[in-house]
Amino acid sequence: MKLRRIRSLPFLLCLCAVAGCSGGGGSSCTTSDECGAGQYCNFTDFSCGAAGGKGDCEPVGTACTLDSAPVCSCDRLTFVNECWAAADSQSLRAPGECP
Q: Which of 46, 63, 77, 88 gives 20 to 30 Å between its CA and that of 97?
């Protein structure tokens, strides 16, 4: 299994202090360009924005655990879990490893 490189926890905690990690932005979006600084467009329905799907602006920075629950991102990258995908501004395509 190829996993996306994991960024260091101190980096993520610092990012949380700067960008904020509590509460979602909540604004509706179709791309991350529509979100504020430190946020990305998170498509929670596994649509990856296809067919005009809308997502919500959510904060990028989070403190993640290494609990293994692989997920496949919209860019077809496999992450250790949902938290690590969100820390890399990635919405989810599907649960489990990418094909």
A: 63
Question: CA Rg, the chain, in Å?
Answer: 13
Would you give the distance in Å from CA 53 to the centre of its chain?
A: 16
The confidence score (pLDDT) of residue 3 equals 52
Indicate yes or no: pTM above 0.85: no
CA distance 41 to 55: 6
Please give the Cα distance from 12 to 44 (Å, whole number).
22
Identify the weakest region by mean pLDDT among 17-21, 52-56, 78-82: 17-21
Task: Summarize the chain as % helix, strand, coil (round to 5).
Answer: 25, 20, 55
32 neighbors 21 (Cβ within 8 angstroms): no
Count of domains for the chain: 1
Taking the C-alpha atoms of residue 10 and residue 33, their distance in angstroms, rounded to an integer, is 26
Mean pLDDT calculated for residue range 39-68: 90
**Does residue 26 sit within a domain?**
yes
| 46, part of any domain | yes
